[in-house]
Design brief:
two-stranded parallel sheet, Uracil-DNA Glycosylase, subunit E, 13% strand, 38% helix, 307 residues, alpha/beta, four-stranded parallel beta sheet, 9 helices, globular
């Protein structure tokens, strides 16, 4: 992965980290023997494939810096998957892409540092991008900045479920795109603002990964955090719903063969395609999110029959 000239949350989405916010609801990390390790390992393999796929991509001006936390923080990301994704999950949240004070620091989606350290209780080695933007250093769990979006999201989960183990018993949080794009001044450039060729190549890799996550976790409902993430998920699910219909039509064929007699590919979703819905993004750049985001989230989850 490269950016010509060499890579958003801007500072508006960041504040000082607040460990005290997660001092209640502490829990021990779930037992390593709990759940289905095969599910977690399948997700680790999918993340590895995504990491390698996006590392091979190139991005030009105005992007000058690209961070891939699946590369420099993969140990932490793998620990997140192995700890909290040990079996199917009923509800899966998907964010858009990392922010500089969120996932770009610890390698966990919406990775508000205090939440990762004090509520998820994860602690693994974290490296740094080969070329860092001077205004967006990666300091891992030592980062003193706090991403507002992540603080709101994980804070809402903590307030409702109290412990991470209770939340992850039926929920999971992922990101659609693993890359953070920055312009020369440090401003975030979101994936939808990339050039068409760049966007197409990135979308192909991210779609494959999203489909794999849904196939592995088998959720009943998938929630896009914000409009962008929701639209990507709708496309992924709609595309594979058609593939699934084709698979049902070929059900009478010998096992392991499609209607043409060729070896059949692994089905995208083994039971049924999940419902896709949108929740309001918690970013402070969204005026509605600054007017009772948590209450709106809870109302939306009740409307969807999730909480």
């Amino acid at each position: 992965m490269s950016a010509s000239s060499q890579p958003s949350c801007g500072s508006a989405n960041a504040d000082r980290s607040d460990s005290a916010a997660y001092s209640t609801g502490h829990s021990a990390r779930p037992s390593a023997s709990a759940g289905d390790s095969a599910v977690a390992e399948a997700l680790v393999a999918a993340a590895t494939e995504l990491r390698d796929a996006v590392d091979s991509l190139s991005f030009g001006e105005p992007v000058t810096h690209v961070y891939n936390p699946l590369s420099y923080a993969f140990a932490m990301h793998a620990a997140y998957l192995r700890t909290f994704a040990r079996g199917p999950r009923e509800v899966v949240f998907f964010g858009m892409n990392p922010g500089p004070w969120g996932m770009a620091q610890p390698g966990v989606p919406f990775g508000e540092v205090a939440a990762v350290r004090d509520w998820l209780r994860l602690n693994e080695p974290i490296g740094a991008p080969a070329e860092q933007h001077p205004k967006r250093p990666v300091e891992g769990l030592a980062c003193g900045r706090s991403e507002v979006s992540g603080r709101r999201l994980w804070g809402a989960f903590r307030d409702r479920f109290h412990t991470a183990e209770r939340f992850f018993a039926s929920h999971f949080v992922a990101n659609y795109c693993p890359l953070l794009f920055m312009e020369s001044g440090g401003r975030n450039r979101t994936p939808d603002k990339l050039t068409r060729p760049e966007r197409d190549a990135l979308t192909a890799a991210c779609d494959r990964h999203a489909a794999a996550v849904l196939r592995i976790l088998q959720p009943r409902i998938v929630l896009g955090v914000g409009r962008y993430a929701c639209r990507q998920l709708e496309r992924v699910v709609e595309r594979h719903a058609a593939d699934q219909a084709t698979g049902r039509a070929a059900a009478a064929q010998p096992a392991g063969r499609d209607a043409a007699g060729n070896e059949a590919a692994e089905p995208p979703f083994p039971v049924s395609c999940p419902q896709v819905a949108e929740i309001l993004h918690p970013s402070p750049a969204n005026p509605r999110a600054n007017q009772g985001w948590k209450a709106e989230l809870e109302a939306r989850m009740r409307e969807l029959g999730v909480w």
